[in-house]
Each structure stands twice: as structure tokens, then as C-alpha cells.
Design a protein that fits this description.
With 82 residues, this protein is mainly alpha-helical. It has one helix at residues 33-81; strands at 3-6, 9-12. It is 60% helix and 10% strand. It is elongated.
Length: 82
């Protein structure tokens, strides 16, 4: 036990109760199918958006890479001609 002093007086800490409030377990038997279907639809929509963003990013990256390679090839060709 911890002894505390408050304004010169000695106090003993009271023990905490060991009982916890009991909660009812959530039953797995009750599943709202409408909510499940809604969550599946939302997941599908988000996955489609992620895929579209990925493909558009890869497309832009490929275009930029192509422009860089094309520019390097032109510069190399000009240097060979000189």
C-alpha cells in the first residue's frame, strides 16, 4: 500500500475494487446482410478508384519516360552527325 501525505496529514490509498462492469458479448449470429452488401459495394468502388489512379499514374510515367528516351536519342543522333 502506498502512503500519501496531503497538507501534512498521512493518508492510506484505498484499494481499488477488482470487479469490472460486465459487458454483453456481441453475438456473431446477428449479421445485417444489407450492411455487409453495402460494405462490399463501398470496397469495390474504392478498389476501382485505386486501380484507376494507379493505371493513370503508370501511363503518365511511361509517357514521361518515353519523352526522356526520345530526347536522349535525338541528342545522340545530332552528336553523331557532327
Amino acid at each position: 500500500m502506498t502512503i500519501a501525505y496531503y497538507k501534512g496529514k498521512r493518508y492510506k490509498a484505498e484499494p481499488k475494487s477488482k470487479t469490472k462492469p460486465k459487458t454483453k458479448p456481441i453475438s456473431d449470429d446477428v449479421i445485417n446482410q444489407d450492411e455487409v452488401e453495402h460494405n462490399q459495394l463501398q470496397n469495390k468502388i474504392m478498389n476501382d478508384k485505386i486501380d484507376n489512379a494507379y493505371f493513370s499514374t503508370v501511363e503518365k510515367l511511361n509517357k514521361v519516360t518515353g519523352l526522356i528516351v526520345e530526347g536522349a536519342m535525338r541528342k545522340h543522333k545530332q552528336e553523331e552527325e557532327l
